[in-house]
Amino acid sequence: MKQSYSQVRCFLLSLFVLLSLSLAGCWSSNEIEEVSLGVGLAFDKGMESKVERELREKGGGYPKKDLITTTFQIINPQASGAGTRGGGAAQQKPYLNVSETGDSVHQIVREFSLRTDRPFVSQHLKVIVFGEDLVRRISLEPLTDQMLRDNQIRPSSLILISKGRASETLETKKGGEVPAFRLHGIVDNQYRSTRIMPPMSLAKLEGKIQSGSSFMLQNVIAANREIKFAGAAVIKGRTNKLIGFLNETELEGIMWITGKGSKGGVVKSFDKQTEQLIVYEIKSMKSKITPRVNGSNISFDVNIESEGRLSEDWVESGDPFDNEFLKRAEKAAEEEVNRLVHHVTKKMQNEYITDVAGFGNQLRIEHPKLWEKVKADWDQIFSKVPIKYNVKLTITDYGTLGSKK
After folding, report:
1. Residue 128 pairs with which residues in a beta bridge?
2. Of 221, 256, 239, 188, nearest to 392 (Cα)?
């Protein structure tokens, strides 16, 4: 019995030692100072930089086509504490941007290893931006293929399109700021504006690409190292290429049609009697797209409802406690929403001949057999489909002026 007890103690002690060793750390880990921690990627139409050209002329080239220029944004671990005593020198930027041009996304990443002693790691990647000129020429499917296969790249990385060079969105003139973090953070303001789309991650993008349906990506523009979310890029489902853009107000129209807009956006309208400004702030928004099928004829009814507050009123004679004035304010806001949805519908059907508002998806859900017959030519069919909108907005309070009885 005593010998058996001793054996058990010996076994437990050995097991404890082995478990303690396994908790000591990851065998394949690297110190953060020894790697290039990637937080942003930008893909543009191929354009060699001056540095790349000089390196190639000195024998630093390899067989390739200059199809893609990839810009890596990495955290600069030496930025903290940079500068001299007394603050005489400017602090280093907390990020570094390095560009490489080639025709293979994976090979471009590996070329990075020839220019720095710190390997590029992408487990903390926040954002991927594609430039307009590139996505007009090359489908998103091959451009994202390597990233979707790479188990180190985060599938939650945010996907954006840039009207202009994507690399310009990874620059800033604000000291201490990392542009990739700023881009990722702007999406969190969706509750404040109907001009910010629900975030499109790399994982969600794969589903869109494989679906064959047209879709949108948030557009970002850059000027003088400042950036702004400005509408949406329209991606054609058949080709997965960029065919055009919706401006900021057109994106608002899409958000009203889908009911996926913010709970804090605003509708700016004008009182018909006085032509003075009235602003309606959204508290809730919902939409229902109903397909109507009669033989081979397809149409849609869209019911849009919202509750909100009268947040700004320039009508001097407007009494927020007066029901007649409230009805005028609601009517003005409803007419503006109607204008937004009809305008963007006309652009989808007549200019782009593309459904990016989910009409086809609703038809698929409610009439799956019919959808199987029309899905191959849906964008073309959609361009001729009648759509009827019914918009109902209700003002429920007036900010700090009181509440509706």
Report:
1. 41, 159
2. 256
Among 210-224, 261-275, 342-356, which is the least confidently predicted range?
A: 261-275
Closest to 360 (Cα-Cα) out of 347, 350, 373, 351 = 373
User: Could you give the 3-state DSSP secondary structure of residue 299?
Assistant: strand
The tokens for 362 are 């609703």
Beta bridge partners of 235: 215, 242
Q: Which two tokens stand for residue 220?
A: 């970002």
From the list 358, 42, 348, the residue with the least C-alpha distance to 198 is: 358
Q: What is the rounded CA–CA span in Å between residue 235 and residue 240? A: 6
pLDDT tens, position by position, 64-120 = 888 899 999 999 877 754 444 444 445 788 999 999 998 998 888 888 788 777 777
The label of the residue with tokens 């220029």 reads 69
What is the rounded (10 degree) CA torsion for 26, 28, 32, 37? -120
Compute the C-alpha angle 387/234/367, nearest 5°.
Answer: 40
Q: What is the pLDDT of residues 241-272, one digit of tens each?
A: 999 999 999 999 999 999 987 778 999 999 98
Angle at CA 131, nearest 5°, toward 210 and 225?
Answer: 140
Q: How is 222-290 classified by DSSP, letter by letter? A: EETTEEEEEEEEEEETTTTEEEEEE-HHHHHHHHHHHT-S-SS-EEEEE-TTT--EEEEEEEEEEEEEE
Kind and range of the H or E run holding 337 = helix 323-346
Do residues 188 and 130 touch, judged by C-beta distance below 8 A? no
Mean pLDDT to the nearest integer, 57-69: 81
Partners of 308 in beta bridges: 282, 395
C-beta of residue 397 within 8 angstroms of C-beta of residue 326: no
Domains, the chain, with CATH or none: 33-57+64-77+92-246 (no CATH), 252-401 (3.30.300.210)
> Using CA atoms, how far apart are residues 272 and 277, in angstroms rounded to an integer?
10
DSSP state letter for 315: -
Name the nearest CA neighbour of 129 among 247, 249, 37, 242. 242
